[in-house]
Design brief:
104 residues, alpha+beta
């Protein structure tokens, strides 16, 4: 039986948002000189994009990230990643849609 985060990652790969799809098109295939994985399980979480060589998690934040308890949940994720030696780069979905080249 798969770990829950692996099943979630597989589902999220099929359901990526438009900003995630656009960013993935620029990151995949080592176009940046680094290998990225998309919707990658990292501990109990699934990050949008992950570069193992740089220990970098890239999160695309849509407008819902500022609502409800989402800010606290994001802070908890970021803390977990940092405590385990990973850096987090948060990118606004609007920035991806507005100027993908600047984001990349």
């Amino acid at each position: 039986m798969l770990r829950p985060e692996v099943s979630l990652a597989r589902r999220l790969r099929r359901e990526m948002s438009l900003p995630e799809v656009l960013l993935w098109e620029h990151l995949r295939g080592q176009k940046t000189g680094f290998k990225f994985r998309h919707q990658h399980p990292l501990g109990p979480y699934v990050c949008d994009f992950y570069c193992a060589a740089a220990k970098l998690a890239v999160e695309v934040d849509g407008e819902f990230h500022g609502r409800g308890d989402r800010a606290q949940r994001d802070a908890d994720r970021d803390r977990f990643f940092a405590q385990n030696g990973h850096r987090v780069l948060r990118v606004a979905a609007g920035d991806v849609l507005g100027d993908i080249e600047a984001v990349v």
